[in-house]
Specification:
Length: about 260
């Protein structure tokens, strides 16, 4: 397995700490003094991580340091940005790239995930949280809109009616409601959050990586690409040696 160009773990003063294992990567947003507010350095680090995981596909666990996922974009930087910066889609393009990684992304969310932090979480395939979870998009209160994915990802997660209510009011959703409306799939105590995320990766890692990659790709394909996208991906998998090996093993176990 090729080594990560980022190494096993980055220096502790980096905005994103990256731990690479043989079958997964754990990335921790690491600006606790700013409640992990997402600044340009964080975005640059996310791009570097995406470059690695596009080359060597592995599941990614994304979490935050200091009992916070990410309390938003860095307002000091955001205040100085102008129209040209908005059109560059600084956060939006990084989050799209993260969402399009070949293998699953799991967001393990403790505490605040607001504004850009919420949009980063929405880009994950699976979201789990803790009882202290507080997630939402207060952008309109700051004179801007949620332009890094919430305006279209959120309705895919919770439906149009709920999404527009949340975006227009800018209210924060707490853990119980987030679970009820499907913003997260489970709530765990803080001490259990990362172990649960790793257990999810363990379960995913037992499956065929090619089938996992195909499932994520087909799931995210536009509606009008179905069923062609499903059938084309299935055709490739039907010819794979791993399919024959796994099905043979299954049949031999069944017949014992």
């Amino acid at each position: 397995m090729p080594r990560s160009p980022l190494g096993d773990t980055q220096a502790h003063d980096e905005p994103l700490l990256v731990e690479r294992r043989h079958d997964r990567v754990v990335a921790t947003l690491n600006r606790p003094h700013k409640r992990n507010a997402i600044d340009q350095a964080t975005i640059d680090a996310l791009h570097a991580l995406c470059t690695e995981l596009e080359t060597v596909p592995l599941p990614l666990i994304l979490t935050g340091a200091g009992g916070v996922f990410a309390a938003g974009a860095d307002i000091a930087e955001l205040r100085e940005r102008r129209a040209a910066d908005a059109l560059r889609g600084i956060n939006a393009h990084a989050f799209v790239r993260l969402a399009e990684l070949p293998m699953p992304v799991i967001a393990a969310i403790d505490g605040y995930a607001l504004g850009g932090g919420a949009e980063l979480a929405y880009a994950a395939d699976i979201r789990i949280g803790t009882p202290t979870l507080a997630i939402g998009n207060p952008e309109t209160g700051l004179g801007i809109l949620a332009a890094a994915g919430a305006s279209w990802r959120l309705k895919e997660i919770v439906g149009d009616a709920r999404a527009i209510e949340l975006l227009l009011t800018g209210r924060t959703v707490k853990a119980e409601e987030a679970l009820r409306i499907g913003l997260v799939s489970a709530i765990h105590e803080t001490t259990d959050l990362l172990p649960t995320a790793h257990a999810l990766v363990d379960r995913i890692a037992r499956n065929d990586p090619a089938a996992t990659i195909a499932t994520k790709r087909v799931f995210r394909a536009p509606r009008d690409h179905h069923p062609a996208a499903d059938l084309e991906a299935q055709a490739e998998l039907f010819e794979s040696p791993e399919k024959f090996r796994r099905m043979t093993d299954f049949l031999e176990r069944r017949d014992r």
